[in-house]
Write a structure and sequence with these properties.
Mean pLDDT: 78
Low-confidence stretches: 1-7, 156-176
Number of strands: 0
Radius of gyration: 20 Å
Strand content: under 5%
Helix content: over 70%
Structural class: mainly alpha
Largest sheet: none
Shape: elongated
CATH class of the largest domain: Mainly Alpha
Number of domains: 2
Distance between the termini: 50 Å
Length: 248
């Protein structure tokens, strides 16, 4: 099914669904990878398809944005909103996230390198098992915040600005490019397991289940490694922004 930019409204909703279902599935797999969401994959797919139909009805060609890009943004946003509702965390959970981030931040400054799992646990006065349990507790909060940020990096920012009826913001565009550069720089200094999880998920688009099979570990352990890696990235970005420290 070919849907011309100017003639999208002439096509039926079933034709749109046929053409854009792969896009919906892509965003579901990209955003709803968390193990606790496994039973809701079909729900997220339906949410994405509903967003597609709404996009057809609301699309305005005068914005100068390709229909496919418009759909992608609406589908992504609807799925993220649904996940946020399921993962709405308490202030206590936010405090736990900040506690780990602060530990990584302080240790990185003191050691002039990324701290190990054992060093972070020791800094928090926790045993390794307790530290991993803490990672399990905060992973949902970390998951949604970073995936929202990464999804925006993957999207053409000029399209985002047009849809928001604003002029493209060079600072935002530069910030997205900087985020990608910082992640690549930090990736080189992570331990091998973190490197694999981040590379497999964010750059190769693999699901946690697939990564677990490749690395021959449990999916739960992949989640823990991902959470620790993302918190390390966030701490690293904070350090660069607040101190102008060199990339290590």
């Amino acid at each position: 099914v070919v849907i011309p930019q100017a003639g999208y409204s002439e096509h039926t909703e079933s034709e749109l669904v046929e053409k854009f279902t792969p896009m919906v599935i892509k965003w579901v797999h990209r955003l709803a990878y968390h193990p606790s969401l496994k039973q809701e994959i079909e729900d997220f797919r339906n949410i994405g398809l509903t967003a597609l139909i709404k996009a057809k009805r609301n699309f305005n060609p005068a914005l100068g944005v390709p229909f496919e890009a418009y759909c992608s943004r609406r589908i992504r946003g609807s799925i993220l909103d649904a996940i946020r509702k399921r993962f709405s965390g308490s202030r206590t959970m936010g405090a736990k996230v900040r506690k780990i981030e602060q530990a990584v931040y302080e240790l990185t400054g003191n050691l002039d390198r990324q701290p190990t799992e054992a060093e972070i646990a020791d800094h928090l006065n926790l045993k390794i098992k307790q530290y991993r349990e803490l990672l399990d507790q905060v992973q949902k909060r970390v998951y949604i915040s970073f995936n929202d940020q990464w999804a925006r990096v993957e999207t053409d920012e000029s399209i985002e600005e047009k849809l928001d009826d604003k002029q493209p913001d060079p600072c935002v565009e530069a910030g997205n490019r900087d985020l990608q550069d910082l992640i690549r720089a930090r990736l080189a200094n992570m331990n091998p397991k973190q490197q694999k999880v981040i590379a497999f998920y964010y750059y190769e688009g693999l699901r946690f289940r697939d990564i677990a099979e490749i690395m021959e570990i449990t999916e739960s352990r992949v989640c823990q490694i991902h959470t620790e890696a993302v918190l390390s990235l966030r701490s690293f970005i904070r350090r660069i922004e607040t101190t102008g420290a060199k990339i290590i």
